[in-house]
Amino acid sequence: MKKKLKDLADLVGGTVVGDGDVEISGVASIAEAQSGEITFVSSPKYLPMLDQTKASAVIVKEAASTAKPLLVAGNPHLAFAKALTLFSQKPYQSKGIDAHAWISPTAQLGSETTIYPFVYVGERAKIGNRVTLYPGVYVGEDSCIGDDSVLHPGVSIYPGTIIGSRVILHGGVVIGADGFGYVKDGKKNVKIPQVGRVEIEDDVEIGANATVDRATLGKTIIRRGVKIDNLVMVAHNVSVGEDSILVAQVGIAGSTKIGKNVTLAGQVGVGDHIEIGDNVIVGGQAGVAFDLAPNQAYTGNPAIPHRDALRAAAVFPKLPEMKRTLAEVEKRLAKIEKAMSSGGKEE
After folding, report:
1. Which superfamily is assigned to 96-307 in CATH?
2. Catalytic residue set
3. Which of 131, 104, 98 is nearest to 117 (CA)?
4. Could you report the per-residue pLDDT of 94-141, keeping only the tens digit for each?
5. What is the pTM of this model?
6. The 3-state secondary structure of 333-346, one letter per residue
7. I need a surface site. Which of 7, 105, 138, 221 has the fewest CB within 10 A?
């Protein structure tokens, strides 16, 4: 596929500076791009490379002094992503159902599905149109998978799970395993049956080896547009709001409610029965032990507002000196108290 730069600019929401008729056939990094490809510059520090790159055009935030044709976009990363999608994604073509897949006679399959070898589709499961199930996918009974969803190798969908449309589940994802619920009977751990389910709404993507547990009662729900990185754990009865992002190794304990457009950075841990408001950003390795108000950034363990955390971090290196000073003050105070108790004369 080839696109003129001016046509590409219309598609990604940008404007052209220079030759708009140059043809683009692919996307590459600024160092690796060749003739016919477009690249992007997101930081001013890379502007000196404009005249060095072999790319036929460059996506930039602002026009720069160069002979290279430019596609100017307010958000170069977004324009780059749209261009990459255009040139990398091929139209869907069904490959049918492999003879080595096992499909229950009671399952319902949509049109133009692609089901690879060694897929298992259980009783009464419903598979939508143009769904792709890669080798080793397990779909439990009474589960439902919406149109245009893709389940990569080794994905396990436990019984009764609801998957929306255009959902992408990467290798090793487990949806609907039992929540971690036990109660003590003396020293013995007694399992609490997990009889709820998981619902994943449209346009969700979940990274490799992430897990979303079924609810004890009711449902665990991942709302529309949520993006979950690799190795994330979402516990029973959790609700994750629309367009939120959970980065690698995040762990969310049971019955926690995550608002809309929330970002939890890498290795954030969230306690149980906590509410995180809309538009919150929690920095990497933070520990969330209390409810977080909306529209703020938090860092630290326990997580506190980011500005407070910066002040605390600035004090931390001074603690040894402050400890010595405090010890000296305590000694002086002890002498004064001793002198006062002995008649007012300090020794």
Report:
1. Hexapeptide repeat proteins (2.160.10.10)
2. 236
3. 98
4. 999 999 999 999 999 999 999 999 999 999 999 999 999 999 999 999
5. 0.88
6. HHHHHHHHHCCCCC
7. 105
